[in-house]
Amino acid sequence: MPHRSWTRLTLRRPDDWHLHLRDGAMLRAVLPHTARDFARAIVMPNLVPPVVTAAQAAAYRDRILAALPEGLRFEPLMTLYLTEATDPDDVAHAFLSGVAHAVKLYPAGATTNSHAGVRDLDKVRPVLERMAEIGMPLCLHGEVTDSEVDIFDREAVFIDRVLKPLRRRIPDLRLVLEHVTTQDGVDFVRDQPKNVAATITTHHLVINRNAILAGGIRPHYYCLPVAKRETHRIALVQAAVSGDRRFFLGTDSAPHLDAAKLQPCGCAGCFTAPVTMSILAEVFEAAEALDQLEAFASLNGPRFYGLPPNEERITLVRGEPWSPPAAVATDEGPVTVFDPGFPLHWQVGS
Ligand SMILES: NC(=O)N[C@@H](CC(=O)O)C(=O)O
Ligand SMILES: [Zn+2]
Ligand SMILES: [Zn+2]
């Protein structure tokens, strides 16, 4: 049956393998939007102060569960923020006791709340070697921070200068190239026979760099890594719909108050949680690959992380275009919801 005529699609409940839930008022406002559609999420640790230790991750996990509205089920999968002072024993304890599922590497200065991240990879080598021994994945924000390097080239340069040497030095370390944005990144992952995967965001599947700049500056499309040329967006779509187990959904839904985005130096991040599954259905439908959506959103991620896929199912239903909320209210102000720029026909059935 041609995909264009599908009006319903049932799949295992998806997970989000890269998510920012923040804390406090923001956490309470955004969490229900993820928990409505997703069973689990890899929760990013870039709070202020960052989630560095096993104890901090356990406490953050408890705050997330306490913020979950009655009647919703959701399992936060915690990560540890890698610093040059991180203790390998604490990391191993966090992983082996189930408190944390991955460590996150932010090159210092690369993105939101990354200043406590890593400047010198040699300093964290004992941690990385221990992780390789116990099979704990390292999630990477894959951009160099060198101000000489053009912002649109920072992922490709990271792959050459950091990722390839790291692969050679610690080949058993399991890596996730988070929010891959380039053909270069896709090609790198495809070249790795094992231990490497990549997450792909919602927004990088639908916007290219024109969205940020054409016709005026549009802060709600500014995220890191910054969206690239159309050729790169197409490479991401091809990877996502290919069924290749190395690529899976990590929305990187990254809410910031509108007040923090709409200013002369605005924050990076797109808030996609409320619309991700609808957008993905449009993207996969347009690629005539709706039958691959379950692999991308519900199967490939758990396989990489060594977890069972969810048993529960959701149904996406195609109908007349619907209008998602323009913004989600928090106690501290509104957060604009990502607008893909095309009508959304698909909705997750209740
Ligand atoms: N993606 C973003 O643009 N922002 C993220 C950080 C990140 O994932 O790099 C955030 O925490 O706001
Ligand atoms: Zn990042
Ligand atoms: Zn992120």
Secondary structure class reads alpha/beta
User: How many runs of DSSP E, i.e. beta strands?
Assistant: 13
Number of helices: 12
CATH architecture group name: Alpha-Beta Barrel
CATH superfamily: Metal-dependent hydrolases
Q: Spans with pLDDT under 50 lasting ≥5 residues?
A: none
Order of helices and strands: EEHEHEHEHEHEHEHHHEHHHEEEE
Strands in their spatial order, largest beta sheet = 2-3-4-5-6-7-8-9
How many domains, as an integer? 1
List keywords for this structure.
single chain, 350 residues, alpha/beta, TIM Barrel, 8-stranded parallel β-sheet, 3-stranded antiparallel β-sheet, 12 helices, binds N-carbamoyl-L-aspartate, binds zinc ion
Blueprint of the fold:
Blueprint: E1 8-12, E2 16-19, H1 24-37, E3 40-43, H2 54-67, E4 75-81, H3 88-96, E5 100-105, H4 125-134, E6 138-140, H5 154-169, E7 175-177, H6 183-190, E8 196-200, H7 202-206, H8 210-213, H9 230-241, E9 247-249, H10 258-261, H11 276-286, H12 293-305, E10 313-322, E11 327-330, E12 333-336, E13 344-348
Parallel strand pairs: 2-3, 3-4, 4-5, 5-6, 6-7, 7-8, 8-9
Antiparallel strand pairs: 1-10, 10-13, 11-12
Helix pairs in contact: 3-4
The structure holds N-carbamoyl-L-aspartate (NCD) and zinc ion (2 copies).
Pathway: Pyrimidine metabolism; UMP biosynthesis via de novo pathway; (S)-dihydroorotate from bicarbonate: step 3/3
EC number: 3.5.2.3
Binding site for Zn(2+) 1: 18, 20, 104, 252
